[in-house]
Prior knowledge:
By secondary structure, the protein is α+β, with helices and mostly antiparallel strands. About 40% of the residues lie in helices and about 20% in strands. It is built from 6 helices and 9 strands. It is elongated and about 60 Å long.
Amino acid sequence: MESAAGTIAALPDHADIRSRVARGRALVLRLDETVSISAATAAARSLRGALPSDVTVFASPGGRGPVLTVLQLVSDSEAATVRPALEDLVAEFRQAADALVGYMNAGSAPVDGIDENWPESVRYREATWYLDPHGEHCRFENAVSGEVVEANIYAPDLVDPYFLLEYAKTSARHEAVVNVCVEGFHDMCRLLDRSGIAYG
């Protein structure tokens, strides 16, 4: 593959890539330092389109040129098996996010017409949750259990794959979903995609 910023040497063929990647064992393909990140991103997109849907490829900068990372994601059958558990997780997360944001807003006092003078903590589920608002998000952390709900302040029902996985891990109630997210965020995105659950 040619680019104005350098030539991408021939990548291994798709069958070779597929045989070298496995769950929990990423395949990293190092590109020449003359290859631009945009050319690497285009190569990742092309390679991803040629591989099975449970394999993802992405480009990232490296110390001596960009790298392509190939990950084996959760299979269709695993995704189908954990779908009810995922739906329970999403429903629980949305309920907690909505309640916590509601309590945060109820405890705030407008300053100069802007309702962003939020309290340091709120009570929810008979526990104290500390607030860390930043931008359009707020991190709520249960002072005793360490459970974390990172919610969008303006759209608490919005699901973010990374924050949903953090909630699943810290709540200690969603092992089935956590256990299939070997590749973390990437597996969670695939689970949500396979279940038809919109996320942002």
